Amino acid sequence: MEYIEIETESLNMKLFSNFKRHQRVTKCWRKIEGKWCIKDIAFIDEWTEKEYAGLISCLKNTVLTGGMVLGAFCNNELKGFASVEPNLFGKNKEYLDLSSIHVSEDMRGEGIGKELFKQAKKWAKEHGAKKLYISAHSAVESQAFYKAMGCVEAEEYNKEHVEKEPCDCQLECLV
Predict the structure, then answer these.
(1) What does the alpha-carbon distance between residue 35 and residue 93 come to, in Å, rounded to a whole number?
(2) What is the H or E stretch that residue 63 is in?
(3) d(CA 77, CA 2)
(4) What's the predicted TM-score (pTM) here?
């Protein structure tokens, strides 16, 4: 596996041609009356061409504004990626946003997500953050990954993330 920062010119539909964003979800975490619990919530999360186009636009913006997009490549095919936004936020300006981290379905369980997360933390620290902020998918499997990476519920919620994805779990991780 080769980990490479991706530049804007490379961010296009062709880059994602062998990337499988597919997740069968059966259970999700929900905060009900101040307590976290697991609920039976079933759906399939799979990106459409329109969603890939939106993702590419967001990733290009991340790079153009000084953030980082890191790709995990196997035989020159994108198999995972992570992005960190460049602007510190929070009342103490200590957070940087891990805006995305995804591993292609065919390569999950190979340590790619762990390495991407580790490198995202390193980049965030080098750019002045004390914590990574993650608005994370609430699926049980996704949350298990973040917990294994040392994430905990965010002390300070980012209002924009909560409004955009109200079912996400708002997490943080020391860098």
Answers:
(1) 28
(2) helix 49-64
(3) 10
(4) 0.94
Beta-bridge mates of residue 19:
none
| Helical ranges in 67-133 per DSSP H | 112-126
The pairing of beta strand 152-153 with beta strand 131-136: unpaired
Task: Determine how many CB atoms are found less than 10 A away from the CB of residue 167.
Answer: 13
Provide the percentage of residues in the chain whose pLDDT is more than 70.
Answer: 100
| Beta strand pairing call for 131-136 and 95-103 | parallel
CATH, domain 2-174, list 3.40.50.150, 3.40.630.30, 3.40.50.2000, 3.40.50.720? 3.40.630.30
pLDDT band at 39 (very low <50, low <70, confident <90, very high): very high
Helix (H) or strand (E) holding 144: helix 140-148
CA–CA gap between residue 42 and residue 28 (Å, rounded): 8
Q: Which residue bears the tokens 């973040």?
A: 146
- Block residue for tokens 């061409």: 49
Asked if 173 contacts 84 with a C-beta cutoff of 8 angstroms, the reply is: no
How distant is the alpha carbon of residue 145 from its chain centre? 11
Tokens read off for 70 = 């890191």
Instruction: Could you list the beta-strand ranges (E) of 88-168.
Output: 95-103, 131-136, 152-153
Count CA atoms closer than 13 A to 5's CA, side-chain side. Answer: 11
Tell me how far CA of residue 28 lies from CA of 48, 64, 75, in angstroms.
22, 34, 34
